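In this section we walk through a basic example: taking a raw amino acid sequence and producing a predicted 3D structure, encoded as C-alpha cells. The instruction is simple. Fold the sequence below.
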Amino acid sequence: MTDRVGMWLACALAVSLVGANVAVKPGLAPVETRRVSDSVRRSREWRGRVAPPFELPLLDGGLVRSAAPEPDVTVVMFVTTWCDECRDEMTEVRRYEQVVQKEGLRVRVVIVSTQEKADDVRAFARRHQLPTTVAMDESGDVMRAYEVRTFPTTVVVARDGRVRLFHEGPLRN
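The resulting C-alpha cell sequence is shown next.
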C-alpha cells in the first residue's frame, strides 16, 4: 500500500468516525440552548453596571452594607437552603475563602439567603460550616434589585461598585 492510499484511508476513517459521533450523540435540547444563551446574555448586560446598593441584617446580628470601602472585591452569592446546587457550592466557597486568606487578598464574600426563616438559614450555615458573612434578604428586595432568577447566582463587584461578573448557576473553582 502506498503512502497516498494510506493517507486517504486514514482521512476516510476519521471522517466516518466524526460522522458516526455526530449521528449518535444527542445535541443540546432547544430549551437548554435558550437557557444557556440567555444566561450568557444576562452576564454581558450586567458586566460594568453599577451594582445596586444594599444594607441587610446579618444572621448573627449586625448589618452588612454593599458599599463598605474595606475590600477590593465583594462576592455576593444569592442562595437558598432548599437549593441542591447551593449546598454543593458552599464547599467551593469555603475553599475559595481559605485561598484568599492565605494570599492576603482583600475580598469579602457575602452569602445572601433570600426569603427564608432565620432558623433554617442558621442550621444551613452550621451544617455547611460557613465561615463567611450570611445576610438575610427576608423581603426579597435585594434579590429583585439584582434580578436573580435562579439559585445560586454569584455577583462579583469591584471596589468602584461595578459588576465584574454576574453568573447564574453553580460556579466551580
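Looking at the output, two observations stand out. The chain is about 45% helix and 20% strand. The chain has a mean pLDDT of 82. In the next section we compare this with other chains.
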